[in-house]
Amino acid sequence: MHKPQATLPPLRRLRVITYRVTLDVPLQLVIKVSDLLRKRRKELGTRNGTRALTCYQQAVFILAWFRDRPGLSRLGQGFGISQATAYRYEDEGVEVLRALAPTLHDTLEKVAEQGLPYLILDGTLIASDRRADKKTSKKGTEIDKWYSGKAHHHAGLVQALTGPSGIPLWVSAALPGSTHDITAARQLVLPEARPYLKRSRSSPTPATKALAPESSCP
Predict the structure, then answer these.
(1) What gap in Å lies between CA 64 and CA 60, rounded to an integer?
(2) 3-state secondary structure of 175
């Protein structure tokens, strides 16, 4: 006897679920970033109503990315913007904030005036998307320039100076993740820091385990 075949239910379109999250940053910080973006748009001659997000909304978007580091594509969807716009808004936000960052020279001058007993110089890896840049290793093989063998993923290496309280006073630009800490310190920090180390025994001393012999005061 022929048995009727079971019929499958019709396929349903995938429904995307949205939900609200709380951004735990001070309101004053959002307003500050919003003001910076408004100034930036004014410099560019951006007309009102031509952007997908207002300055305030873009500030929240940028701070949400800094706070939680979600995928930019998904974060952009939550704000109703495309992936391309999300990357563009993130880059713009980083740019306006970076313009406020002190230079290494200014930081060392301020530290010398404050008479801090020491500084801590340390490097850290910041995870990044995969980059196509290549370089030749010491062994003569071609490797990904931004791949960190230490962290086993693509990243950028930054150097940071912190005071005794642990608060960062200066952060460098990012170098490829394959760069060693000591190389980055010699390239980005020590040439500028040496004159300050020679002022007196009480001058702040950049110190890190890898750099202790290089940067100790006489």
Answers:
(1) 6
(2) strand
pLDDT of 216 higher than 80: no
* Dist CA 66 CA 149 (whole Å): 25
Spatial distance between the Cα atoms of 202 and 73, rounded to a whole number of angstroms: 49
Does pLDDT of 218 surpass 60? Answer: no
Of the candidates 63, 54, 47, 41, the one whose C-alpha atom is nearest the C-alpha of residue 81 is: 54
Question: Which of 10, 169, 27 is CA-nearest to residue 105?
Answer: 169
Say which residue the tokens 């100790």 belong to: 216
Q: What is the DSSP letter of 89?
A: H
Which residues, including other chains, have CB under 8 Å from residue 38's CB and lie 6 or more apart? 55
Least confidently predicted of 8-22, 45-59, 102-116, 124-138? 8-22
Residues 6+ apart with CB under 8 A from 103: 170
- β partners of residue 122: 160
- As a residue count, the chain comes to 218
**Per the confidence metrics, is the pTM higher than 0.90?**
no
